[in-house]
Structure formats: C-alpha cells, structure tokens
Amino acid sequence: MSTNTASSPSGVWRNTLHCSIRYGPGCLAPSLRSVFEEDLALLSPRPSRALIITGKSLSTKTDVIHQVRSALGDRYVATFDSISQHAPVEAIHEAVELVKRERIDALVSVGGGSPIDAAKAVSYLVHQERHGEDDNEPRNFIPSIAIPTTLSSAETTQNSGFTRDGKKTGVSHPALVPRAIILDGEVAMHTPLWLFLSSGMRAVDHAIECLYRPGDVQWLLRGQYLAALRELFVMLRRCKEKPDDVDTRQRLQIAAVTSLFPESRKGALGLSHGLGHALGSSYSIPHGITSCLTLAGSIRYTTRHSTPDRLASLAEALPFVVSSGSLAPIDSQDLEKLREQGNRVADEVDRLVSDLGLTSTLAEYKVPQSALRGIAEHAAGPKGKEDPKLVDEIVQLLEDIDQPKSRA
To answer: Domain Fe-containing alcohol dehydrogenase-like C-terminal: where (predicted)?
Structure first.
C-alpha cells in the first residue's frame, strides 16, 4: 500500500455568517421582508431601522430603490446614494455619520461591488468607534443585506475594499459578511450590458483563481468552482446575444455567487486579482475590465510558477471552459501536459473576452508605461523582493496587454 500523501487532499474550510441566499425573478420584496422576519429575528434587539446604501444611477435612473423602500416599510429610515466606483473612503465616512445620527441598526446594500463593500466598511468603522478593535462579537456589528445588481461577488466575502488617496485599501472581519443575499434577475436587468458582462468576467476570475490560490487549493469547493465556470462561459455568451432575457441574468447571478461562495479568506486570490486591485482604483478601471485585461496573462504566468497540485487544479478547468473535453483524471506528475492545458484555459479566457466585445488595453485607460514596474512590484509582494525576475515577468505580462494580437 502506498504511503505517499504529498498530493492527497488536505486543508481547512470555514463557514461564514451567511444565513440565506434568496433568488428568483421578482423575489426582491418578499425576500427582503423574510430576511428581517427570519434571518435577523434572532438578533437582540431585532433590527428595525434600515439604511439603504447605493449609487446615484440606481437611485435616480431606476425604480429599484423605490422597490426596496416599499419592501422595508416602517423599517426604512434613509437612503445614502453617494457611493461611486471603487467606494471612496470620504463617502464611507459620510455614511458612518448618517448611521450614528439616525441610530441605524441594519444596512441594505443595493448595486455592484462598491455599495456592498461600502456597507461592510460602514459596519466595521461604526463597530470600531463603539466597541474597539479587541471586540469580535458578531452581534456588535451592524448586519447588512446585499442585493447585487452585477456579478462582482462582493456579497460572498468578509472583505471590504475601498479607495483612499487613489489607492486600494480595505478592512476584513468575519462579522462583515452580509447576513443575507437577494438575487433578483429582474433587478439585474437595470444593469447596462457592458457592465454586467464585464463583472461576469470578474466572476470567471474568481472561479479560476480559487482553483490555484497560492497555499490554499480548496478541495471541498473545487467542484463548485468548476460548475460555476461552465455556467459562466455558456451564459455570458447567451447574455451577449439575448441581453433582455431575465432567465439568463438570473442564472448568471447564481453562477457568480458560486464562483466565490462561501469566502472566509482574506486578501487577493491570485495574481490577476492583485493586479486588478493596483490598476482599478489608481486608474478608475472597473474591476470587471481589469479581469478582462489581466486574467489570461496571469494564468499563463501561473503555469510557469505553480506547484504540481495547483497546476493540476487549473488544468482540470479546461473541459469546463470549452464545449467538449475529457473529464478523466490528470497525471499530476506530467508537468508539461499540465502547463499545456493551463495555457489552453488562458486561450479560452481570451476568446471569451473577445466574444463578449470586452477586449481593451491599458493605454485606453491612460496607464503609463512608467507605472508598470510599480504595479508589478505591488502585485508580486514579498516574493518579488526575493526574486526580481518575477517582477520582470509581471512587467512583461502588463506590456503584452497592449500588444496587438489575434484573440485565440
């Protein structure tokens, strides 16, 4: 009997404070009422004063916020709609003051990743003022409910990213996970197609980088990530063809959640996320677009710098991102074969970006060549200081984004 356990599955998975995920076209109003009556009923005192956190577009150009207000009924207190892209910290501080002034005890975030992350940050900062850093009792944090309109998956995590002085920063705590998620395909219809599709590429980024996250290949959820990839690759193309199909948007919302749920870990998932954090807030690039720019190159980089188990995990994604392919187990010792399949996954990502009409360049977002090394050093982290060649490779990855190429 073999005693070699070097590549055997092992690890730790931790659940989060999510109580429920409610989904379906038209589910917003009954779901929101149920969340307060069921999911938040065990909190003491039971939340009764809700603040909606959102952005100007949803607030002024759609009836979504009116629907949320009506569903909240007597629980509704106010709407804070000053959250813009990448959640500037100044707006978050304004929301904190409103929460304190109006004695808010529940936050309802509506929109993409920025309002959802902003609600988490507000909860964190109010808790810090009231209870201090050493208190970790979840009941002492203001609970939030997330109603996403994009595919950013911010609703699945305990992490809150926001912008301070043009740089991405953030906070993280297990109690910041939204207690409930409401996925309503009819609400998602209000999101412009380009934004919905590009945020879907962010979900693709989540699922792929979860498969090879350094030091943390999550075996328990690997099947879920692979299933999310298949659904995203199929349904994003369908959404491009049929942008007014509610069923397609609903299925994509569910796929986006499963690409990263439940996420109790801190920090960037992998190189593509690290580059996206550095590029997004500094140059006002939507995070979905940063994934379009960096994911394929990051996958190719990863094939050159991964352990066999991470390579095997990435290679297993190939049948799920093409129309056909073998699901037979892969020999984790055949490194050349693993790298070949990993690079084919990158090719399929490039093809999907092209099919969705989302191909772009760093130059389009006025990212200067002189900034690339600093971005690369930020993304490489401590390993880049130990091995400067890694930084050189990431600089090359960034330079290649702007090179004319025929998409695979």
So the answer is: 198-399
CA distance 21 to 34: 11
The DSSP bridge partners found for residue 180 are 20, 145
Instruction: Examine the domain organization and report whether 267 and 145 are in the same domain.
Output: no
Query: Hey, is 210 helix, strand or coil?
Result: helix
Strands 167-172 and 159-164: antiparallel
Residues 114, 224, single domain; the answer is no
Q: pTM above the 0.85 mark?
A: yes
SS3 263: strand
Report the CATH number at residue 368: 1.20.1090.10
* Residue where the block lists tokens 């509506």: 110
Q: Rounded to the nearest 5 degrees, what angle is found at the Cα of 188, between the Cα atoms of 99 and 118?
A: 25
Structure tokens at 228: 């999310």
Q: What is the pLDDT of residues 257-316, one digit of tens each?
A: 999 988 777 767 899 999 999 999 889 999 999 999 999 999 999 999 988 888 988 999
Structural domain count of the chain: 2
